[in-house]
Design brief:
- This protein is an alpha/beta fold.
- Helix content is 37%, strand content 15%.
- It has a 6-stranded parallel β-sheet, with helices on both faces.
- Helix 4 packs parallel to helix 5.
């Protein structure tokens, strides 16, 4: 059997991974974490779960894998600083910057969901923290790997489109009403839904 081009290289030991949030889109990250753990690439060591009653099954699954459960990120980093290689952050947008910077300061690389942050200033602070700590931030944005996007990128790099003066994008991602009701921040342009009742 030949290896897939997406198979990671063999690792000397599994990547010690923390997950902040296991409900909402955190369920997707949890599933991927469990799959990569089964493949021997990752090892869950910690998770932040603010709703343990609602997420009892996820907590049990993580604990069976050896992960410790914490009620908030401060508790996580107080106990796990220097013990996490990668922190997964599938949380609300308003948490991306503070949680990512805390993880970087604690010695972990970060995979944060899109968008990187809610403001340019937060993004710049995150980049500075990454540079200061020597740890990286990656953004989970699957469209970056879409074949059409990669083809367009190659056309630009090869100079086949001439000198680029301006780029405008227009995207249509139809969403059902339920998409915007799934949490307090989906579809918000400011305030990140913190005041929605």
């Amino acid at each position: 059997m030949t290896a897939s081009p997406f198979d990671p290289p063999s690792l000397p030991q599994p990547c010690r991974t923390a997950l902040i949030g296991v409900t909402g889109y955190g369920q997707v990250h949890l599933q991927h974490l469990l799959e990569t753990t089964q493949a021997g690439w990752t090892r869950p060591v910690a998770a932040v779960v603010i709703n343990p009653e609602e997420a009892a099954e996820a907590c049990q699954t993580l604990q069976q894998q050896g992960a410790r459960i914490y009620p908030d990120q401060d508790s996580l980093w107080a106990a796990e600083k220097g013990r996490v290689d990668l922190c997964l952050i599938p949380t609300g947008i308003h948490w991306h910057a503070p949680m990512s910077m805390a993880a970087l300061e604690a010695g972990a690389d970060v995979l944060v969901e899109k968008p990187l942050s809610g403001t340019v200033e937060e993004a710049e602070a995150m980049i500075r923290t990454s540079e200061k700590t020597g740890r990286f931030i990656a953004v989970g944005y699957q469209d970056l790997y879409d074949p059409n996007i990669l083809h367009l990128k190659q056309q630009i790099l090869d100079g086949k489109l001439g000198t680029i003066r301006r780029i405008r994008g227009w995207a249509l991602w139809p969403r059902q009403h339920s998409y915007y009701q799934r949490n307090s921040w989906a579809g918000e342009t400011q305030g990140w839904g913190l005041h929605r009742s």
